[in-house]
Amino acid sequence: MAAVTSADVLPTGCRIFTSIPDIFFIPEFVFGGLVWTLVASTYVFPANPMGWVMFVSIFCFLGTTLWFFIFLCGGNTGSIWSSLDVAFHFVAAVFYLSSSVVLAVITISFGFTVSSGVPGLPTNYNQLYQLDIAAVVMSFVATLLYFLHAIFSAIRWKRS
C-alpha cells in the first residue's frame, strides 16, 4: 500500500474549486474585501483600533490571495504545505476574531454617540453607523470562514 503524501492530499490547479476546505477561498475573498472596503469608507475613529482592523483585513486578503495562487499554480507539493495551510488559516481566524470584537465594540460606542447627538460628528453619521454595522457583520462572517477553513485544513493535515 502506498503512503499518502501531501501532494495526494492538497489539491492543485482547478481542483481547489472542488475540495472542501479550499472552496472557502472565494467567500474569504468576498467577505474580507467587503470588510476592507466598508471600514475604509467609514468614519475611522478611534484610529488605533481601527488601524488594527484595517491591518487584519488587508493582511488576510493579501495572504489569501497569495495562498490561492500558490495552490492554483501547484506550488504546494512539498510535505510542509499541509501544516502551513492550517497555521495560516488559524492565525487568520484569530486575527479576524480579535479585529471583529474590536470593530463591534467601536461600532456599539459609535451607536451610543449617534443616539445622543454629540456635536462634532459628520453630517452623514447615520449612514456611517450603518456601514460600521455592515462591516461588523462581514467581519464575523469572514472570521467564521477562516475558522472553518482552519478546521477542515487541520482534518486534512491529520489524514496526511
List keywords for this structure.
structural constituent of myelin sheath; Myelin and lymphocyte protein; Marvel; mainly alpha; transmembrane; single chain; 160 residues; elongated
Mean pLDDT: 85
**Terminal CA distance:** 14 Å
Q: Which class of secondary structure composition applies to the elements? A: mainly alpha
The helix count comes to 5
Task: Please mark out the parts with pLDDT under 50 across 5 or more consecutive residues, or reply none.
Answer: 1-7
The largest pleated sheet is described as: none
Query: Could you tell me the radius of gyration in angstroms?
Result: 19 Å
User: Beta-sheet strand percentage?
Assistant: under 5%
- How many domain regions? 1
What is the helix fraction of residues, given as a range?
over 70%
Shape: elongated
What's the count of strands? 0
Provide a descriptive summary of the structure in words.
74% of the residues lie in helices and 0% in strands. α2 runs antiparallel to α5.
